[in-house]
Amino acid sequence: MTNEKLLSDFKDVLKKEGLKVTPQRIAVLEEIIKDKGHRESEDIYMAIKSRKTHVSRATVYRTLDILVQNGFARKLNLGDGRARYETKIDSPHHDHIICNECGKIIEFVNDEIEKMQEEIAKQHHFKLQQHIHQLFGLCKECQ
Questions:
Q1: Is residue 126 within 8 Å of 118, Cβ to Cβ?
Q2: Domain around 33
Q3: Both 45 and 74 in a single domain?
Protein backbone atom coordinates (compact mmCIF):
# COMPACT_ATOMS: atom_id res chain seq x y z
CA MET A 1 0.00 0.00 0.00
CA THR A 2 1.39 3.40 -0.90
CA ASN A 3 1.97 5.95 1.83
CA GLU A 4 -0.50 8.35 0.20
CA LYS A 5 -3.23 5.69 0.10
CA LEU A 6 -2.45 4.61 3.66
CA LEU A 7 -2.60 8.18 4.95
CA SER A 8 -5.82 8.82 3.04
CA ASP A 9 -7.41 5.66 4.48
CA PHE A 10 -6.30 6.63 7.99
CA LYS A 11 -7.72 10.13 7.61
CA ASP A 12 -11.03 8.61 6.45
CA VAL A 13 -11.10 6.37 9.55
CA LEU A 14 -10.44 9.30 11.87
CA LYS A 15 -13.20 11.35 10.24
CA LYS A 16 -15.58 8.37 10.49
CA GLU A 17 -14.75 8.14 14.22
CA GLY A 18 -15.42 11.88 14.60
CA LEU A 19 -11.76 12.61 15.38
CA LYS A 20 -9.48 15.30 14.04
CA VAL A 21 -6.49 14.48 11.88
CA THR A 22 -3.55 15.65 13.98
CA PRO A 23 0.22 15.41 13.57
CA GLN A 24 0.29 13.29 16.76
CA ARG A 25 -2.13 10.69 15.38
CA ILE A 26 -0.24 10.59 12.11
CA ALA A 27 3.00 10.12 14.07
CA VAL A 28 1.51 7.04 15.79
CA LEU A 29 0.53 5.59 12.42
CA GLU A 30 3.98 6.28 10.99
CA GLU A 31 5.68 4.74 14.01
CA ILE A 32 3.64 1.54 13.95
CA ILE A 33 4.23 0.93 10.24
CA LYS A 34 7.92 1.81 10.15
CA ASP A 35 8.96 -0.97 12.52
CA LYS A 36 8.17 -4.62 11.84
CA GLY A 37 8.71 -5.55 15.50
CA HIS A 38 6.36 -6.36 18.35
CA ARG A 39 6.38 -3.31 20.57
CA GLU A 40 4.54 -2.14 23.65
CA SER A 41 2.61 1.13 23.56
CA GLU A 42 5.25 2.69 25.82
CA ASP A 43 7.98 1.85 23.28
CA ILE A 44 5.93 3.49 20.54
CA TYR A 45 5.27 6.52 22.76
CA MET A 46 8.98 6.92 23.60
CA ALA A 47 10.01 6.57 19.94
CA ILE A 48 7.64 9.38 18.97
CA LYS A 49 8.82 11.56 21.87
CA SER A 50 12.46 10.98 20.87
CA ARG A 51 11.67 12.64 17.54
CA LYS A 52 10.61 15.75 19.49
CA THR A 53 6.95 15.27 18.61
CA HIS A 54 4.73 16.33 21.49
CA VAL A 55 2.24 13.53 22.09
CA SER A 56 0.44 12.25 25.17
CA ARG A 57 0.33 8.63 26.21
CA ALA A 58 -3.47 8.81 26.04
CA THR A 59 -3.30 9.85 22.37
CA VAL A 60 -0.93 6.97 21.63
CA TYR A 61 -3.20 4.45 23.40
CA ARG A 62 -6.37 5.74 21.72
CA THR A 63 -4.73 5.89 18.30
CA LEU A 64 -3.37 2.36 18.67
CA ASP A 65 -6.89 1.16 19.48
CA ILE A 66 -8.20 2.85 16.33
CA LEU A 67 -5.39 1.32 14.26
CA VAL A 68 -6.20 -2.15 15.60
CA GLN A 69 -9.97 -1.78 15.14
CA ASN A 70 -9.49 -0.71 11.53
CA GLY A 71 -6.95 -3.28 10.41
CA PHE A 72 -3.81 -1.13 10.33
CA ALA A 73 -2.21 -2.90 13.31
CA ARG A 74 -2.49 -6.09 15.33
CA LYS A 75 -2.59 -6.21 19.13
CA LEU A 76 -0.87 -9.24 20.62
CA ASN A 77 -1.30 -10.75 24.05
CA LEU A 78 1.77 -12.86 24.68
CA GLY A 79 0.74 -14.24 28.05
CA ASP A 80 2.61 -11.78 30.25
CA GLY A 81 -0.16 -9.21 30.62
CA ARG A 82 1.57 -6.64 28.39
CA ALA A 83 0.02 -5.86 25.03
CA ARG A 84 2.29 -5.55 22.03
CA TYR A 85 1.54 -4.11 18.64
CA GLU A 86 2.72 -4.90 15.14
CA THR A 87 1.84 -3.47 11.77
CA LYS A 88 -0.57 -5.27 9.48
CA ILE A 89 0.35 -3.05 6.53
CA ASP A 90 2.23 -5.03 3.88
CA SER A 91 2.62 -7.79 6.47
CA PRO A 92 1.21 -11.13 5.35
CA HIS A 93 -0.50 -13.39 7.85
CA HIS A 94 1.86 -15.16 10.22
CA ASP A 95 1.85 -16.84 13.60
CA HIS A 96 4.22 -16.56 16.57
CA ILE A 97 6.54 -18.67 18.70
CA ILE A 98 7.33 -16.91 21.99
CA CYS A 99 10.09 -17.71 24.48
CA ASN A 100 8.72 -17.74 28.03
CA GLU A 101 12.14 -16.85 29.43
CA CYS A 102 13.58 -14.01 27.33
CA GLY A 103 10.49 -12.93 25.38
CA LYS A 104 12.02 -13.58 21.96
CA ILE A 105 9.33 -13.72 19.25
CA ILE A 106 9.72 -15.69 16.04
CA GLU A 107 7.20 -15.25 13.25
CA PHE A 108 6.33 -18.28 11.13
CA VAL A 109 3.92 -19.44 8.45
CA ASN A 110 2.91 -23.05 8.01
CA ASP A 111 0.51 -23.89 5.20
CA GLU A 112 -0.38 -27.24 6.77
CA ILE A 113 -1.49 -25.57 10.01
CA GLU A 114 -3.53 -23.02 8.04
CA LYS A 115 -5.24 -25.77 6.05
CA MET A 116 -5.89 -27.84 9.18
CA GLN A 117 -7.53 -24.87 10.92
CA GLU A 118 -9.84 -24.39 7.95
CA GLU A 119 -10.74 -28.10 7.94
CA ILE A 120 -11.46 -28.13 11.68
CA ALA A 121 -13.66 -25.05 11.36
CA LYS A 122 -15.52 -26.64 8.44
CA GLN A 123 -16.07 -29.87 10.40
CA HIS A 124 -17.70 -27.83 13.16
CA HIS A 125 -19.69 -25.67 10.71
CA PHE A 126 -17.72 -22.50 11.44
CA LYS A 127 -16.61 -19.87 9.01
CA LEU A 128 -13.28 -18.55 10.31
CA GLN A 129 -13.04 -14.79 10.54
CA GLN A 130 -9.70 -14.62 12.30
CA HIS A 131 -7.38 -16.72 14.36
CA ILE A 132 -4.42 -16.30 16.65
CA HIS A 133 -1.89 -19.08 16.76
CA GLN A 134 0.86 -18.68 19.35
CA LEU A 135 3.28 -21.29 20.61
CA PHE A 136 5.06 -20.76 23.93
CA GLY A 137 8.25 -22.45 25.09
CA LEU A 138 11.98 -21.90 25.51
CA CYS A 139 14.22 -20.70 22.70
CA LYS A 140 17.53 -22.42 22.00
CA GLU A 141 19.48 -19.87 24.06
CA CYS A 142 17.21 -20.24 27.13
CA GLN A 143 16.93 -24.04 27.20
A1: no
A2: 3-87
A3: yes
